[in-house]
Predict the structure.
Amino acid sequence: MFKKPAPRLKFWLLCLALFIGVESLLRLTLTGWLALDRPDLLAPALALFPLGLVQDMAMAAVLGLPFILGLLVWPGLWRRKLARGAAHGVLITMAAALVFISVSELFFWNEFGGRFDSIAVNYLIFPREVIGNIRESFDLGLILTAVFMLSVVVYLALRKPLIRALDSPPVAGERQRAFGLAAIVGLIAAPVLYLAPFDLDEHREVNEVAANGLHSFLRAALNNDARYVGLYPVMTEEEALATARRLVRQDNSKAIDTGSELSVLRHVDNGNSPNKLNVVLVIEETFGSTFVDGLDYDRLDPRFEKPVVEIISPNLIRLAADGLFFTNIYATGSRTVRALEAILTSFPPIPGISTARRPGSVGMNSLAYILRQQGYRTGFLYGGRALFDNMGTFWSTTGFEDVWEQGDIEDQGFTTAWGVADEYLFAEALKRLDQHADGKTPFLLSLLTVSNHRPYTYPPGRIDKDPAAKRQENATTYADWAFGQFMELAKTRPWFDNTVFIFIGDHGPRLSGSAVVPVPNYRVPLLFYAPKHIKPARREVIGSSMDFIPTLLGLLGISYDSPFFGLDLMRVRKGEGRAVMEHNFSVAYADGENVAILSPGLVTRGYTMQVGNYPLIPRANGADPEVLNKAIGLYQTAHKMFYGQKYHSLQKQFSQPEN
């Protein structure tokens, strides 16, 4: 069939083989990497290798379709000098792209423990921070040199076959055969890519190794976050709404009748004597519970992967002794923007990207709106650029009257690609508090830090750990030191005694664990500190960062009409706590004993859990029915409320600030 144009077809097949070979080599590398940490996963990873090879072949075929059409449909074009030069340029570019993407996948795996996902898509949108982060974390010159040299090797290997393909004369009927070949390849490859990725193993990392990184990236980029029905398990709308309303009911709440309208609105009675303290909310970058010394009584249990052998967070632990410390709180995601959604709006993590990055987030119910109802002034101070991840717009359109970012910080003594070092953020916060916490109008100031982020560098001489080592544990200790220094300076201010300070981690460090949603890695510390107003205690109730707002308002004694999905953790009875979280389009509901996970394709999974760093254990008979129903009802209702603009009632009381 292709006797005369064989050089062109051979060149195309050679390119496909090269792509498949590189992807296979990458998969073998990731398999070995995984086996170093989890030798028990080597066998299942190798067993799924053929499935990964099928995905690589399908991806190669689809990506190669334009090139086979170009070679065979217009063969005479490539005999022209200009076109030949363009062909070599395309080959060099594609070789460089293949090498660069493969190297990037290795770095991404090291940072996030998986293939490209929505995080990679987001990083492509905000290259300044990402490129700066890579430059500060690694030897960028060495990396680019290696990429260049490998790209040249690939080009030289394909150069002569390309020349032979371009020199091959046209053949009668070649165009028709090209279209026929393209149609056959497309019909075979498309179903494979539509059905993939195939989660055939119970371990998340094994499925990640088997996936094709480029396909995972495209799937994340093209996924329609607005679609829920048909992808995830559902129940009737009435049953889902009733389930969601039951999940937010507490002993001091009374449902407000909204009929069948999508709402979980209820009146929360916290008494008639509100204590309107200033509120300083510190959201700490990547401060997971794995960094909190003494959080678990059995920290040195051999079942833990990394027992604590160094002091990481002495200031937090010291302050926790005089504060209300929650030890079993779970973040709702693995990214800061997901934490903002939970902490500031008490909204569940519906599948896909955070609502903070969706157009419908404007005017979502929030802590800022509730406190403005109570006469508070509200402000947000961020150590980085507010443009990143749509954060500035999210803050300014969910009730924060003032939004300050890196450019508004006067003293920027030490910066990274992500923003100013924490100590300079806290110094600016003290200035803002001195200005606004005047004793007349209560003030909410939310802070978001950046130091505990790769490249993990910070000003030298602050702690007895070398910043040049670029260790995350060192950066965490610096973040802890900066927070401790801030608290010591705050104690000297006249507004200190009338202020409640909150410390919460936005999410944990790099994800690890076999479950589709590795629940233990989402655990973060939550501390309320106001020695003259809040009695010290250590609370082990399981909860979510989504529960922060109701808990704070309960501690302040503020009664209000609550539209939130969160609970007051002080009123959660033993055994009734729960946490919700999302990872890569899968969502989970955990109650401390069981976990139910909903994934695209109407897939459900069940695990048993033990609070702490213990891994989840798959349930042989699937998800616990009661926990599964709670998960379905909660996420189905939340998704429909967001896209129906039914979670935006508080904004009507305030004029929207300019973006």
About this structure: The chain has a mean pLDDT of 87. Residues 6-37 form the longest helix (32 residues).
